[in-house]
Amino acid sequence: MRYRYTLTSILLLMAFNAQAEGIKITPGKWQIQLTSTMSMMPQPMTKTMEECITADQLSPAELMKDSGNCKVSDVKSTSSDLTWNMVCKNHGGEMAGTGHFTSAGSQMNGSMDMAMNMNGQALKIQTKWNGKRLGACK
């Protein structure tokens, strides 16, 4: 589930920024590697996935359908960098955190730090990602 939140937030922020003519993202087939470190887990977890990102998927309206209960705020961007705050409400409580995203059009990287209180224990999740465009979608 944490990968879904991370991937959704990346795509959502890409869309907001594409609309604002900020960071440029080239639609196509992307390879994205996510590495998550959680305070309650001894080893980081890494997942590599390939996603076909179309221009339609970069539409904020389309992405809001998949954003679950997450709200993004305080989005700041330059021509290559994006930062934001994010709050997600789910059945286990509320997760809050910050993120950073950098893009060069066909490459991206960034990180997101989230924290929540789960049954009286603090849970911290740090997710780092990097991605590269592999080519056109097939």
UniProtKB/TrEMBL annotation:
Keywords: Signal
Organism: Sedimenticola thiotaurini
Protein name from the UniProt record: DUF3617 family protein
Signal peptide region: 1-20
